[in-house]
Design a protein that fits this description.
With about 290 residues, the protein is of the alpha+beta class. It has 2 domains: about 170 residues, Jelly Rolls (Sandwich), CATH 2.60.120; about 110 residues, Arc Repressor Mutant, subunit A, CATH 1.10.10. A 6-stranded antiparallel beta sheet has the order 1-2-9-4-7-10. Strands 3-8-5-6 form a 4-stranded antiparallel beta sheet, with no helix packed on it. A hairpin with a 5-residue loop joins strand 5 and strand 6. Helix 5 crosses helix 6 and helix 5 packs across helix 7. The longest helix has 21 residues. The chain is globular, with a radius of gyration of 20 Å.
Amino acid sequence: MSIGEQTENSLIGKNILFVHDDQFLATVENKETSPVSGKDLLMRSVIYFYFCMEGKARFGFGPHYSREISEGKNYFFYNPESDLPFLLTLDPGTRMVVLSISLKGIHKLFIEGGEEIHFLKPENINRKFYDERDISSSLKLELNQLFTINLSENTKRIFFQGKVLEILSLYFSNRQPDMESCPFLNDEATVRKIKHAKEHLLKNLDSAPTLKELSKLAGLNEFQLKAGFKEIYGNTVYGYLLDHKLDHARTLLDRKKFKVNEVASQIGYTNTSHFIAAFRKKFGITPKKYLMK
């Protein structure tokens, strides 16, 4: 069974953008007012990327195990052992991009330098691999185009083939940090605590805790939190929070349901002019002009 054939009757198969040999690209949306579900399959030795652009989705792997993906997150699945069936459920308003490519296809793309990618190392080829990370702002821009682009039949194939390579390039260019460079991160428990602090931070965009409060919540001292956070996420605690808030602000503006001051309030700004200045600094355009575009 090919990658394209496996999705013909699934939710993902309803809007296939591109299928060629071992590459597959599709968007999936739930425009209904209630959740929708469909059966799907993670094929053996195929690498899958699920990018949740909006809403929330669940992957049900049997009666006792499931994973949830929320807005702004990306899941990476690789299972070399066997095909893995699952039930995909999309909440109302959910939009996702799905990309898959065979392990052989990835090796062709990274024939030189592939050792830099964790799962391509020889000792990992026969191991299951799973990764969850935030979708970078640069990758979001490219992925959002897939829902709005209007092309002629003659140019679609070339455009989407290039888009597959662009998505993979942006994904893998966001390399994971070298855990050996920070002594605090040798301890898996410390890494979990820092990730817990990050999740708490993102759940409280409009009322972020102080560094002292966040450290106490995570069970770390402030120095451990600051050093570890910078090592894992490549930014300071509040630099990371600001980036996420502004990315979220742009997503809200894309929906064209909110005014600029309403978006500012939703992400925790009491002074709209401060929000406008921060938005312009990050994206090179004011929120008002962004809305007009």
